[in-house]
What we know:
172 residues, 2 domains
Amino acid sequence: xxxxxxxxxNGDAEAFITLMEQNxxxxxxxxxxxLGNEEDVADAIQETIxxxxxxxxxxxxxxxxxxxxxxxxxxxxxxxxxxxxxxxxMDLVEADQQTKLNLETFHIVQNSDLEFFxxxxxxxxxxxxxxxxxxxxxxxxxEIAKLLHLKESTVKSRIHRxxxxxxxxxxx
Length: 172
């Protein structure tokens, strides 16, 4: 993948498109964990692709491409959340997102991911993204901490608390 990243950085459009295709599902799953509805997810991914294309030369180490791309995505998700929070009260946003999630989940998430997605919905918002990144995308706790600007111990404790919450809810 490092060669592909270098090609993209040198202006090879096909290489850039290939990189985006390779990371499309990961971006979708993480954006869903953050935003919850199809329109916002599509906006976040579109912005991320544009930002990544415009800033591709700022990536210093090609081996960190995926981490760099996900950080851009997370920043875009946060921006979208902030814009929505200014327009509509948070209670209305959450109710609207739940309605849209029920209707749109099948279009966004592949069938094999539905069970995992349902489990994520049982977690508090601050734990969902961490679970998606850790269990869904296999990021390390160190990588997650760096991407979310948290301490690694915070990430570990949220994973632990989230697992305890799921055990309680599922009676395991």
